[in-house]
Design a protein that fits this description.
The chain has 96 residues and is mainly α. The chain has one domain. The protein is 76% helix and 0% strand. It contains five helices and no strands. Helix 3 (40-63) runs antiparallel to helix 4. The longest helix has 24 residues, at 40-63.
């Protein structure tokens, strides 16, 4: 990790500062192929959805509860990231 506390946006946090190994793997094998087929917004949400499912497997299943919460969390992160990059998000100064 690269000092995630210093991130000033969700884009910077997930793209540059948190779990670079997963980011590189997901970018190369999920985001890039999907981006060409369905566009960057859907590809972004799909990668966050997959991350949510991975966290379900390693958190919710062993704990025997909280099902759906990790997936919801990661989908909201993806939506937040897309909002940062949208016109209203940029107008509000998000994602800098």
């Amino acid at each position: 990790m690269r000092a995630p506390i210093l991130a000033t946006s969700l884009t910077e946090f997930w793209g540059k500062r948190w779990n670079a190994a997963f980011h590189q793997l997901a970018h190369a094998y999920a985001f890039q192929p999907l981006r060409r087929r369905v566009g960057p917004k859907v590809a972004t949400l799909f990668v966050f959805f997959i991350s949510g499912l991975v966290h379900e497997a390693v958190i919710s299943l062993p704990a025997g509860g909280g099902y759906g919460l990790p997936t919801a969390y990661f989908l909201f992160q993806g939506l937040g990231l897309l909002f940062e990059r949208s016109k209203p998000g940029r107008w509000l100064g998000l994602g800098r």
